[in-house]
Amino acid sequence: MHWHPVGNPYRSGEECFLSDLRNPRASDWVAGTCPCMEKETNVYNEHSSEVEDYTGNWSNTVRIGCASGFWGDTMTADYLSEITMSLLTAMKNKDSNAGYPVDFVQVISNAGGVNPEACAAALQAVCSQAGIDLNIAVVNGDDLVHRWSFHAEVCHQAGPISRALDLGADIIVTGRCVDSALVLAPLVHKSGWSPDRVWSAEDGNFVVTKPPKTGGIVSKATVAEQLLYEIGDPACYQLPDVNCDFTQVSATYMDGYRMTAVCCVGGPRSKDKAERTAEAILKRTRAIFKQLKMADFSKVNIEILGSENNYGHNSKLPAGSREAVLWLAVHHPDKRALNILAREIAPAGTGMAPGLTGIVGGRPKVSPVLKLFSFLHDKDDLKIDIAMNGKHVETYTPPKVAQEGQSSGSPKQSEVKATGEVHIGQALTEVTVAEYFAHLLEADKGAKVDRYECPGIHGLNFVLHEALGGGGIASLRSDPQGKAYGQMMLDFEIHDMPALVDIINES
Which intervals hold domain AtuA-like ferredoxin-fold (predicted)? Predict the structure, then answer.
């Protein structure tokens, strides 16, 4: 582990500031990475002889380890570096019952899903079997299904999670909560911040690093791109902890069934053969529907991957290549109808266009469509309960926060733009970006493009409305979340740009 003085992250092109310090205190350091990590050196050994007295208590720093996983993943937590082992040995020499990180068991997770009580009960059973006594807290109240006829969950804020920590929880299980609350809650708990303090924390800084000698790059461009990931207006990003009047709610509801078939096609004119095969399968299936008096498909999506399908009219391979992948996805209100279609896919390999080499994953499976609908809900109309070890402890009441005199988010300094930045801003407008993605925008549903300027990072954030075909599970597209859209923008051609040397000289 490498360390840097608090408030003094390294500057590009420099080694860390440690060479400027003498006899630092343990409380003056924070974790981080700098170019001198490439030397495989250890800051403690080089710069400080006082670390031997370190007891494990940080006065000015809250250290939070984060992990994010999918269903079924395995999470691991590594606490024991060489230095940590030395520190723990020193602790055990003073106290035979010590010698381990006493706070490692404090865990916060939204792994409760739609049943946090059952998740906590399962954890309690594991602890009991192992003979471990831990306080397991549950923060519920996010489920609004009892109010409406569809499944709906509130995105919890950090407040009730922080309160559970105040009550002595070792493990906290929540249902739906905003991602940032998992990190903000321990900060509020350990720092004693009031809601007004959270609201007033307008300015700050952070250091982004990566382990040495690994792939990828940490730069202003990559960080700025991630900063704008999946948000709308950067000046008004609504989260439960920073918009005190409302909290975000998402609801899911059943909307029929879907099925996706993926087939590989090879040889000359692969794109044409894949398209003809898909059309023939649908025609045959529709004839069966007509005989059985079944309704037609609600929606059909055919994509030929390998022909730059997602680029639409901007494709540089409109005729495709000699290898293609057929993506055939359909939506229907009746599950039986899609089972009929699933049985019609395999015969295409022997009875239709030559070159269909196989069906990825075998016969396609039919799955229900659960659509997501997000909206705002009044915080004061929620009942948030905190339970500890299976017993109700208290009902959390969100504190009132004064909002007068808050910043609108606009920069306080004057804005200066280089020639190249101005030129790019003039070329990338809401109109030109809408034209670029016209093949993906659903005009009949009121599709539009919004542009937001982010002068602090010299960036532009574009929000494409009605551009995902329903998004998530509801979408029939091969890119249902628009993950490639930002990368596709890199191919947007801007003409008559000033010379790069002129841009650099001006900046």
Answer: 424-494
216: left (phi over 0), alpha (psi -120 to 50) or beta: left
**What is the pLDDT confidence band of residue 219, given thresholds at 50, 70 and 90?**
confident
Q: How far is it, in rounded angstroms, from Cα 170 to Cα 147?
A: 32
How far apart, in whole angstroms, are the C-alpha atoms of residue 141 and residue 66?
A: 24
Answer yes or no: are the C-beta atoms of 35 and 61 closer than 8 Å. Answer: no
Which of 471, 31, 331 lies closest to 209, judged by CA? 31
458 shares a domain with 367 = no
The Cα 195–Cα 160 span in angstroms is 12
Domain termination site, one of 311, 343, 371: 371
Interatomic CA distance for residues 236 and 227, integer angstroms: 14
Contacts of 293 (CB under 8 A, 6+ apart): none
Whether residues 433 and 343 share a domain: the answer is no
Question: Is residue 134 situated within a structural domain?
Answer: no
271-326: pLDDT as tens digits? 999 999 999 999 999 999 999 999 999 999 999 999 999 999 999 998 888 999 99
Structure-token match 């494990």, residue found: 56
Q: Which amino acid, residue 458?
A: H
Residues 334 and 430 in one domain: no
Range name among 135-149, 209-223, 455-469 with the lowest pLDDT average? 135-149
Could you tell me if 332 and 431 lie in one domain?
no
Residues 352 and 426 in one domain: no
Determine, yes or no, domain membership for 84.
yes
At 4, which helix (H) or strand (E)? strand 2-5
Residues 367 and 426 in one domain: no
* Cβ atoms 182, 68 nearer than 8 A: no
Expressed as residue numbers, the domain containing 472 is 419-506
Domains held by the chain: number = 3
Q: What is the DSSP string of 144-202?
A: -TTTSSSEEEE-B-SHHHHHHHHTT-SEEEESSB-TTHHHHHHHHHHHT--HHHHHH--
- Segment 79-90, tens digit of pLDDT: 655 556 666 677
Q: Out of 237-241, 341-345, 399-403, which region has the weakest mean confidence (pLDDT)?
A: 399-403
77-86, 153-162, 184-193, 498-507, range with greatest mean pLDDT:
184-193
159: number of CA atoms within 13 Å, CB side? 27
Q: Mean pLDDT throughout 27-48?
A: 34
Cβ atoms of residues 274 and 317 within 8 Å: no
Closest CA to 107 of 142, 48, 64, 43: 64
CA distance 317 to 438: 18
